[in-house]
C-alpha cells in the first residue's frame, strides 16, 4: 500500500520536476498497432499533446538497461566471489540492491505504461488516433472509430492520471489534463466527451 502511494507521488513529481529539455516530437520509436492500422495520410488534426511524455518514455526505457545491468552483473559478482576477489557480503549487497532497485523502477514505471502522449482527430470527425507508451516506453499508435470513444474518467484523489476509455478495449489508457496541453478545446470536448476546463459531459 505504501509502495503504491509513494510510486504515485513520485510519478506526479517526476513529470513536474524535469524541465522541458526535449520536445514531444519523435520522442521514441514509433510502432503502429497493426490490428487497427488505417491509411490515414495527413487527414488528422492534433488536438492534445503531453509535453512530459519524453520523460515518461525515458524512464520506461531505463527498465531495459536495469535488467541488462543486473542480469550481467549478478553472475559476474558470483564468479568474482568464487575466485576470491570479493567476499560474500559484497555479493549479498549487490544482489539485494539489484533486486530492490529493479522492483522499485518497475513499480514506478508501471504508472507510465499506456500513458497517452498525443491525440488526433480525423478531419471528417470519423476517427480518433492516439499515441501511447507501451511497457518498454515505445510509442504505439492506435486508430478507432469516433463512436468507440467512451470518454475520459477524471482521476481519483491519489491517481496521477485520468482514464481514457475505449469501447471493447481492455487496455487502461491514461491521459493527463493537468500536465498536458489541449490544442483545440471544442474538438477535444466533442471527441473525448470531456470538458478540459471543467466537468466532463
List the helices and strands and how they pair.
Layout: H1 2-17, E1 30-32, E2 44-49, H2 53-82, H3 88-109, E3 116-122, E4 127-133, E5 139-145, E6 149-153, E7 162-166, E8 173-175, E9 181-182, H4 185-192
Parallel strand pairs: 1-5
Antiparallel strand pairs: 2-3, 2-9, 3-4, 4-5, 6-7, 7-8
Helix pairs in contact: 1-3, 2-3
Distance between the termini: 32 Å
Pairing-aware structural class of the strands and helices? alpha+beta
List low-confidence stretches: 1-11, 14-40
Number of strands: 9
Tell me the β content: 15-25%
Order of helices and strands: HEEHHEEEEEEEH
Q: What share of the residues lie within helices?
A: 25-40%
Number of helical regions:
4
Gross morphology is elongated
pLDDT averaged over residues: 79
How does this structure look, described?
It is found in: Mitochondrion inner membrane. It is a multi-pass membrane protein. The structure is a single chain. 38% of the residues lie in helices and 22% in strands. It has helices spanning 2-17, 53-82, 88-109, 185-192, and strands at 30-32, 44-49, 116-122, 127-133, 139-145, 149-153, 162-166, 173-175, 181-182. It has a six-stranded mixed sheet. It is elongated and about 70 Å long. The relative contact order is 0.18. Residues 1-11 and 14-40 have low confidence and may be disordered.
Amino acid at each position: 500500500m505504501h509502495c503504491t502511494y509513494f510510486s504515485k507521488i513520485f510519478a506526479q513529481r517526476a513529470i513536474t520536476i524535469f524541465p522541458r529539455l526535449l520536445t514531444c516530437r519523435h520522442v521514441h520509436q514509433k510502432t503502429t498497432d497493426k490490428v487497427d492500422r488505417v491509411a490515414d495520410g495527413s487527414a488528422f488534426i492534433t488536438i492534445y499533446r503531453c509535453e512530459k511524455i519524453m520523460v515518461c518514455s525515458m524512464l520506461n526505457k531505463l527498465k531495459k538497461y536495469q535488467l541488462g545491468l543486473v542480469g550481467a552483473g549478478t553472475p559476474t559478482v558470483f564468479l568474482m566471489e568464487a575466485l576470491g576477489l570479493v567476499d560474500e557480503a559484497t555479493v549479498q549487497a549487490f544482489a539485494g540492491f539489484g533486486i530492490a532497485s529493479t522492483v522499485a523502477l518497475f513499480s514506478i514505471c508501471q504508472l507510465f505504461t499506456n500513458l497517452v502522449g498525443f491525440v488526433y482527430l480525423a478531419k471528417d470527425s470519423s476517427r480518433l488516433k492516439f499515441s501511447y507508451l507501451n511497457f518498454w516506453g515505445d510509442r504505439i499508435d492506435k486508430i478507432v472509430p469516433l463512436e468507440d470513444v467512451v470518454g475520459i474518467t477524471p482521476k481519483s484523489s491519489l491517481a496521477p492520471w485520468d482514464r481514457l476509455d475505449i469501447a471493447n478495449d481492455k487496455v487502461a489508457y491514461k491521459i493527463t489534463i493537468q500536465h498536458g496541453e489541449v490544442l483545440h478545446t471544442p474538438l477535444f470536448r466533442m471527441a473525448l466527451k470531456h470538458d478540459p476546463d471543467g466537468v466532463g459531459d
